[in-house]
Every structure is written in structure tokens, then in C-alpha cells.
């Protein structure tokens, strides 16, 4: 039986099928970074391709971060793998149908999700550890930008939501 199994694998390899299959898996699951909350209780691993980093200057994000804006990356939920602290994730709804999820021990914002976009989350990329090689791709809700903060990049600015 064992000999048979090895035989089969080699056969598939020769025809190129197994090789293609393995390459696709590697691309889908490649780790692009790890992140954590302030207390370190929540830790995660991010897989896939590096998504665009988007800044949001709306009042809710300013309040939630205590800063002039938030930077998020929209990712599919399976791209995020929890390594620790899933039980610390706590949600707050500032607006209907949208959850802002944070660490209940240290308060770090981790991601948000909307009921009308199931399976998709907006990761707070400030929780990523180490270099990413990314830069901000665009700015949304600049109509409510903090007057004490100046945007000094040349990326697109949207008065309200980013057009999808
Ligand atoms: Zn924490
Ligand atoms: Zn916002």
C-alpha cells in the first residue's frame, strides 16, 4: 500500500498536477506578518498578499484611536490566523451593523467588520509587528480631518467614503 501511495504521488508530480497544487497553496498561505495588541494577550498571523493600507479620518475612527486617523487593511477573514487571545476580543457598536473589535484587557483596536460585508474585516495595521514595506494608498473622510494634522503624501483623498 505504501509503495502504491508513493508511486501515485510521483505519477501526479510528473504530470505537473501536484506541483501546481502545491504552489497555489503556498501562495494562498504565505505569511506576510504577525501582529499583537498592546498587552500582548492577542497575537495573530496574517497570510496572503499584502493588502492596501487605507487611512480613515472619520470622527468615529478618531475617537476609537485617540488620534487623527486610523489605518486599516481590508482582508478576507481566513487570511487572519489567531495565535493567542481570541477570548480577549470584545466588540463595540458605534453605528448599527458595524462592530469595532478591541482587546478587552488593554483596549488596542484590532479590526472592524460590517454585517453587510460578511467574511471581510478591516485590520488595524498599527498592531502589525515589524516592517511591512507598505505605505498609505488613500485617505477617506478627509472632510472631518483633524485641523492639527497635515496630510503630506500625494495619495487620493476622498471627502467621504472611499468609492468602491
Ligand atoms: Zn491586549
Ligand atoms: Zn473611519
Reconstruct the topology from this structure.
Layout lengths: L1 H14 L1 H13 L1 E6 L6 E5 L5 E4 L2 H7 L4 E7 L3 E5 L4 E7 L2 E6 L5 E6 L5 E5 L3 E2 L6 E5 L24
Parallel strand pairs: 3-11
Antiparallel strand pairs: 1-2, 1-10, 2-5, 3-4, 4-9, 6-7, 7-8, 8-9
The structure holds zinc ion (2 copies).
Let me know the largest β-sheet.
7 strands, mixed
- Helix percentage range: 10-25%
SS class: alpha+beta
Strand content: 35-45%
Order of helices and strands: HHEEEHEEEEEEEE
What is the CATH topology of the domain at 32-144? Metal Binding Protein, Guanine Nucleotide Exchange Factor, Chain A
Q: Report the CATH architecture of the domain at 32-144.
A: Beta Complex
* Count of helical regions: 3
Report on the architecture of this protein.
With 164 residues, this protein is of the alpha+beta class. It has a domain at 32-144: Beta Complex (Metal Binding Protein, Guanine Nucleotide Exchange Factor, Chain A), CATH 2.170.150. The chain is 21% helix and 35% strand. The protein contains three helices and eleven strands; from the N terminus they run H-H-E-E-E-H-E-E-E-E-E-E-E-E. Strands 6-7-8-9-4-3-11 form a seven-stranded mixed beta sheet. A four-stranded antiparallel beta sheet has the order 5-2-1-10, with no helix packed on it. The termini are far apart. One zinc ion binds next to loops.
Amino acid at each position: 500500500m505504501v509503495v502504491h501511495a508513493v508511486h501515485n504521488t510521483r505519477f501526479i508530480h510528473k504530470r505537473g498536477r501536484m506541483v501546481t497544487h502545491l504552489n497555489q497553496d503556498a501562495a494562498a498561505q504565505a505569511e506576510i506578518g504577525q501582529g499583537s495588541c498592546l498587552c500582548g494577550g492577542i497575537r495573530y498571523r496574517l497570510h496572503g498578499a499584502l493588502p492596501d493600507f487605507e487611512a480613515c479620518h472619520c470622527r468615529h475612527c478618531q475617537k476609537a484611536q485617540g488620534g487623527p486617523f486610523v489605518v486599516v487593511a481590508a482582508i478576507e477573514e481566513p487570511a487572519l490566523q489567531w495565535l493567542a487571545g481570541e477570548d480577549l476580543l470584545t466588540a463595540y457598536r458605534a453605528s448599527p451593523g458595524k462592530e469595532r473589535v478591541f482587546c478587552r484587557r488593554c483596549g488596542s483596536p484590532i479590526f472592524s467588520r460590517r454585517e453587510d460585508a460578511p467574511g471581510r474585516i478591516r485590520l488595524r495595521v498599527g498592531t502589525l509587528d515589524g516592517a511591512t514595506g507598505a505605505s498609505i494608498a488613500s485617505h477617506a473622510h478627509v472632510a472631518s480631518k483633524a485641523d492639527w494634522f497635515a496630510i503630506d503624501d500625494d495619495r487620493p483623498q476622498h471627502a467621504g467614503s472611499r468609492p468602491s
